[in-house]
Write a structure and sequence with these properties.
301 residues; globular; 10 helices; alpha/beta; 10-stranded mixed sheet
């Protein structure tokens, strides 16, 4: 580690990820940028995930393993934020992987800039298919305070007149470097218990407090879409989840005195989420519930 290198704390929540975990960790420890703190948080896995984490612990002194009971990805990430020592904080999902030069590229382009967030583009990987994500501009771009509000709009909605078009992945915590000072000074954390949009809510707060953001168009992160993941699999407790999500978004809007356009974006986001819940509940092919049980679940909600 060179004296002028900024430490990056990488937080990886791990839950029953044995099939993909080694590829994820290998892609991190082989980074061309070496000033890394790698925090593996085993969230009560019942497979071999913890054994894999402990094996890498012996291999690389930059690795830290936290073993805890299963409480969900938000609490795991929050634990990582609390113990992170780096100037920058990065989140990686345990079933994803990154390009070897990801952190070197992001850090090198952030030099001599007082940045709060650095964002790169990503690949979308589903099975054997890989596509470049259509994200923002095709060139490096600095966003100042007034422009950063656009990111909140891009997360919320794609269908409201006067609104900036929605950008897929803008609310995801991966493919980003966050200033540790920004997160800790403003107590920005993930809300425990939310089963959808917890990432987007986290980033709404990030974009509210951030003063300067850098976007670079290179695809440096590989986001793996799994049919059995929480965001792409069965969804229960539709009304309960929707109400809590709406309440958290409205709490944010009230705290920061957001305008009518923002509020309309919140409602649009809730409608879109509810539509997705219904799709997962009734039409998703791996849903474990029989049709009549699905119907009963909806009516009881």
């Amino acid at each position: 580690m060179k004296k002028d290198e900024d430490l990056i704390s990488i937080i990886i929540p791990v839950y029953n990820a044995e099939k993909y975990l080694e590829k994820c960790i290998d892609s991190i420890i082989k980074q061309t940028y070496s000033s890394l703190e790698i925090i593996l948080i085993n969230d009560g896995s019942s497979d071999r995930s913890l054994q894999i984490c402990n094996r890498y612990l012996k291999y690389d002194k930059r690795i830290m393993v936290i073993n805890k009971k299963n409480e969900g990805v938000s609490i795991a990430r929050n634990k990582g934020i609390e113990i992170a020592k780096g100037k920058w904080i990065s989140f990686i999902d345990a079933d994803d992987w990154i390009e070897p030069e990801m952190y070197e590229n992001m850090i090198s382009k952030s030099k001599n800039e007082e940045l709060d967030v650095v964002i790169c583009n990503c690949y979308i990987n589903k099975g054997n298919n890989e596509e470049k994500n259509k994200f923002l501009s095709s060139q490096d771009r600095i966003y100042n305070k007034d422009d950063i509000i656009i990111f909140q709009q891009k997360f919320l909605c794609k269908g409201i007149k006067k609104y900036r078009p929605y950008v897929w992945g803008i609310g995801a915590p991966w493919c980003k470097l966050y200033s540790s000072k920004l997160l800790k000074d403003n107590n920005i954390r993930f809300v425990p218990g939310l089963t959808r949009n917890e990432d987007g809510l986290f980033n709404l707060y990030v974009f509210e407090y951030a003063r300067k953001l850098l976007y670079i168009p290179q695809c440096l992160y590989h986001y793996r879409i799994l049919s059995n993941s929480l965001s792409h699999g069965k969804q229960l407790n539709i009304i309960e989840n929707t109400e809590r999500n709406l309440n958290e978004l409205m709490k944010f809007a009230k705290k920061f005195n957001k305008d009518e356009i923002f509020i309309n974006g919140v409602y649009s986001r809730i409608i879109t989420s509810t539509q997705q819940y219904l799709q997962y509940l009734f039409f998703y092919d791996i849903n474990i519930l029989e049709y009549n049980k699905r119907k009963k679940e909806l009516l009881q909600s």
